[in-house]
Records
---
Amino acid sequence: MSVKSTAPRRTTRGSAAKRRSGEPGLVQLLTPQGERVEHDEYAVDLTPEELRGLYRDMVLTRRFDGEAVTLQRQGELGLWASLLGQEAAQIGSGRATRPDDYVFPTYREHGVAWTRDVDPLNLLGMFRGVNHGGWDPNENNFHLYTIVIGSQTLHATGYAMGVAKDGAESAVLAYFGDGASSQGDVAEAFTFAAVYNAPVVFFCQNNQWAISEPTEKQSRVPIYQRAAGFGFPGVRVDGNDVLAVLAVTRAALEHARSGQGPMLVEAFTYRMGAHTTTDDPTRYRSEDERSEWAAKDPIARLRAYLDREGLADEDFYAGVDTESDALAKRVREGVRTMPNPGPMAMFEHVYADGSALVDEERAQYAAYAASFEDAETGGNPGQGH
Amino acid sequence: MTQTMAVAKALNESLRKALESDPKVLVMGEDVGKLGGVFRITDGLHKDFGEGRVIDTPLAESGIVGTAIGLALRGYRPVAEIQFDGFVFPAYDQIVTQLAKMHARALGKIKLPIVIRIPYGGGIGAVEHHSESPESLFAHVPGLKVVSPSNASDAYWMLQQAIECDDPVIFFEPKRRYWDKGEVDVEAVPGDLHRAVVVQQGTDVTLAAYGPMVKVCLEAAAAAANEGRSLEVVDLRSLSPIDFDTIQASVQKTRRLVVVHEAPVFYGAGAEIAARITERCFYHLEAPVLRVGGFHAPYPPARLEDEYLPGLDRVLDAVDRALAF
């Protein structure tokens, strides 16, 4: 696996290019070349096993994600939102959480879901079109995917307000993206979190592109700096450096848990794939830019570090590959055999306490559907229209 | 134990009872704390239950509803106040996109027991955005329940029931009736939250109304009685679901129906009722279902609201037209 020693600097966009290069204040513990560096404020000290665990997490997540893209191309999924390139941002932050913490994802947090022990097949139901999510958020303290961007930051804040009321020592982790940073709900979430000193960490994966719009279309300041205006700390971390993301997110969650209120983490990363499988990024961004970020690949850089330090051998890598194949196989089979819901399912769970209106429409539709069954079995074919 | 109290006081007592009986109940909204709300519905609650349970929020309606959702996910039962009808729209996305759908999105695995109280309707001489009736915009949304009391007793009991309900309930309070007094039996056993009630028996025409218009319809029935006409008045109480059985039974008796609301007639609750009752009572009806309500125009300046709002005469005019068929 080759790693470029230096990435070409982009000069075509002037000041915008400078902002997008990641400076200033980027927390980094592992260079793109896989060299370990120290930071004044943030540190991690991981065992070789933990380091290998992060590598395994990222590889399996990438394999799962790639399998989902393939399944979409094969018509098994209607849509998929790939996380390619964001594995470190998601595994690093997800692995920073404790079981009692609560996570509010967007719709792209497949890696975070992995760290919360959410069955990957649960994530695929909505993309196959058999449900809109459907897993129990309280089973793994991992809320349902939220498609309307930014909405979940308010839910996370309210949840964190409840955590504080309960006197619990848990934290809440709210994911959002650079595009969502423009949403009013995100600003309101920052306001509420600050005013009530809620134990919530806002984790922005700035992957540089909100579908076709670059971050310059969302903000004139680096996103992490917005926190200052709301009265809480913000930090920018190299989102392709799993060690730095882990260190920064751990510190931010501890900040929240210890009663110091919210924090904003901006993970500076890159969406290597399309926004979703319906998107065509060649229409709005250059191959040069993608190549530049390919040289900062989160998995390659951790592997370079593991190899340099002699922390993993070929058996380990082969084992991860075998596990990846097994995961992909399980996902493939699981998706292909995922049952379609019955037509009456659409009337279920509209209300917790029921509704006479739903009952009436359900009964009417059931009778209508049954009229076809009657026709097929030879009864009353002339009835109905 | 029956007490005489205004609608506003009944709501206040209802919130007090809910806060006392369930430690998970929270009251939240703009100015609901020390001030007691701009209509004083939360008067005294902040003092007695503290700021941990009666929460003054930032002035951000989407934030109020969005954080209420999070609190509900944590096990709380938030009762959120939106200060005025016309201020609910910043929260509309959270209500429609998240609150209404989250239970279904989770295939029933989570519940959203949230009440959103909204003072609504006109008749108080207010400036723009303070007199609107947006109830249809919520009743149209699957996943929400929508109710509106018309009197003190219902204000007390329906709010209790809305808070106890495991579904999101949009609770429309008829603000111009806040100061109307009525009898409240705080030890009664309340009926179904979503059941309509015949509040005036009659034989010639059915008037169906809810919230602030129930009083107008009762006055219309009294005036009509002087002219020898017997009007039946149905207080719908619930707009989602609607108790069509009670309306149907009334219409099968009177054979004529006039629906009255402050909200614009176009796509309003009256349209839905007209369609469903026509289906159910086609052979009983002696006249088309008629509607009396607001016009397809922005709520007018206060000096014109008496012309805009359905009053006694417009209701009786519709009664005349129904009887003339």
---
Amino acid sequence: MSKKTLVEATINGETVEFLCEPRQSLLETLRDVLELTGSKEGCLTGDCGACTVLVDGRPVCSCLMLGVEAQGKNIVTVEGLAINGVLHVLQNKFLEHAALQCGICTPGFLISAKSLLDRNPKPTEHEVRYALAGNLCRCTGYDKIVKAVLDAAADIRSQGEGKAAAR
Amino acid sequence: MAESTTTRDFKVIGTRPIRPDGVDKVTGRAKFGADYAFPGMLHGKVLRSPHAHAIIKSIKIDKALKLPGVKAIVTSKDLPAAENKLEQSGEMTVNPMHLSMNILAHDKVLYDGHAIAAVAATSPHIAEEALRLIEVEYEVLPPVMTVDAATKPGAPILLKDLRNNEEGDKPTNVAQHYQFKRGDIAAGFKAADYVIEREFNTAMVHQGYIEPHNAVGIYNSDGQATIYCSTQGAFDVRSLSAQVLGMPVGKIKVVPAEIGGGFGGKTTIYLEPLSVLLSKKTGAPVKLVMSRSEVLRASGPTPGSKIKVKMGATKDGKLVAAEIWMAYQAGAFPGSPVAAGALCIIAPYTIENFLIDAYDVVVNRPKTAAYRAPGTTQAAFASETVIDELAEKCGIDPIDFRIKNGVKEGAPQVLGPPFKRIGFIQTCEAIKNSEHYKSKLTGKFRGRGVASGFWFNAGMQSSATVNIHTDGTASVVTGSPDIGGSRASMAMITAEVLGLPVTDVRPITADTDSIGHTDVTAGSRVTFATGMAVYEAAKDAERQLIERAAKVWEKKPDEVEFRGGMLHAKGNGVPPMSIKQLAPRFARTGGPITGRASVNARGVGPGFATTVVDVEVDPDTGKVQLLRCTVAQDAGKAIHPSYVEGQMQGGTAQGIGWALNEEYFYDDNGTLRNSGFLDYRIPTCLDLPMIETIIVEEANPGHPLGVRGVGEVSIVPPVAAVANAIYRAVGVRMTQTPMSPPKLLKAILKHRGATQHSAAAD
């Protein structure tokens, strides 16, 4: 067992320093070292997407990245989606559309969906399905998740138009 | 939505409020089993067999124990002897000795992944290193992987003590033979104009919950143990763990964590007793979490099956006879749901003559667990495909054929007693009248298929308390782990009875010490049975509210009425009083108000579903694309329609995965070769279309709100519906699952060869 390494990263907007073993995945580091248990372990092989986080804006399976690789990176987890207690529009739409049943896959879906909407605010149904195909859900059949994401996109667009009109 | 037979005017029931546990689940705050951590906690890992069938000659743990950080190792020697007997546990029967042998292999390993030893160490990585230092000497035996291999003369015997009800003292792999019959099948087939006989084989599949099994065990020096885990049944974890550990039930407390899917697979125990044993040895809390590979190798799955169906119909489309032989792979220990499959396989139809033989067979695969309508999807694949073929022979639309033969109120069930009010025909008519079924499907290699399904649903025991708080709001406490939104339903039922806004009711799932016994979340029973307990508990609270208001008004209780959330004094002009107004007076009128109820729910309302799918087949690769899918299901009464739809959509998606992709793939040595989500491929959102839902509400007369329970039956029709759609698309009748590209392509090429051959012969 090799010694622990000091890592500095920005996590959910805060600069944090933490110690982790070289063999610890970013997921394990988030959950067991930083107590951010919102990111979930479903497979540890990058197949289920329950551990998805944003690393410098890109969705990454945190089980496939080492904790030490977080050095200098900007990481957003599900705990960082709501700002000052105000839910992100995706979080609200997931609740309104009943887009979760057990909820274990929800953090990963929210992060993947945020990543999609950040890149493409006007996705088609197919584009939503394509962007979320790396996230497995066994409860919902995906129907309500896809609808929630499409509705969130529409909401974000109309807010954007509202802002534009106000200007 | 089809016509509702529940004509009562509800204020909360039938609406779609935000689920009460929702915010925690979208913010990452919800605590699932693996999220628990305690000071000084150790981490456990399980050593698993690389062999499918072997005698354990020795286990040496010395080297592993010497690894720095390793605190304890347990093997089956640490387990007390358990009795070889059958007991009912929730939906399944349990043999404590077999359960113990599954937790840690005794003298033999019976499948790839069978647990042999468990290690507790200061980190999961050290525990894993320690596993590699445990030396196990095996005498490898030939694996028995299929029903045919297990039943052929001279087959290796898995369990030396296993005997069945027919072969006397002969060692066997056939654990049980069930037979159900009615009428005279010879006469039935004689009356038939068309007879279809087919053999079907389905692959073993897994429930596929995204959250792996987990447990944290804390054993205290006073002999009290606490287990935190994700389970469908905290009380079952308690009683089963007590049996395996030889502890009194009352010494174990089980705290159910949020559960990340179960579908039947989390109704038994795997890691829970190990966490307690390791905690007892080390004095520290011990957490164990399975890897995905362990989940697939050693938990769940549902049986692969071999089913022969022979059915006959008259020219005008009346089913007259059915002869069925079915055998299920129980896994390493007896207890497949083959009897349930046998009772469901023709349950949607009135057939006067039938003979069903069903066999539970042990094989060197993981012990099967319940999976959503256990045993019935395999069965319906066989029967609903043959029925489709008979409808075609008779020249009758497949939905009309089902309506013609479908069971209605008063029709005898397979076991004899008549159905009470049911909604099977209504599900068929809902599909027949749907925009989907009426639409024209055009294009090459496209086809539309329908199928139906039946599931009993379950009643069993539930407890509930409703507490009225000092501000007039309420909490409702049950013992049912919430697997798909049931807390929303419990809050809604409470709110409906008490006339409160649903946001004024907080629903809680309690641990085993904080609520009366409640059976497992399974059998689609929570909204039905726990819902019944909640309804009664809320009514109990209502009765007490009336008594208190009567005291305040100095009247008799029968002079007070509770309606619309308000207490009214009969007769004179006393202004009505709300619960909020009465609540501050609880102390002076007799103390806090807690409504209580416990039920052993009778009046179960069976569930039916009918599904239509459109597919497109790529004839060059055998790949099937779902184009459209609609499911109609009888909910009795939908308490929260969004979560009813969610159950229908989720079950349908699982059925589609079962139909097209999913299978356990074992090599010749009995090693599972696809123990990960990359190769055990469940549907992604790119594989599926929207899943349209039609909720039929044919009120269950056995429930105060008409509820049936909706969790399971939607998984039953899709496999057959997909097979029937593939037939219409490319002309081949698939008789095995999964209908994956290589298997379907082979069938297409064979069919093409046959038709070209016959064309050449013409």
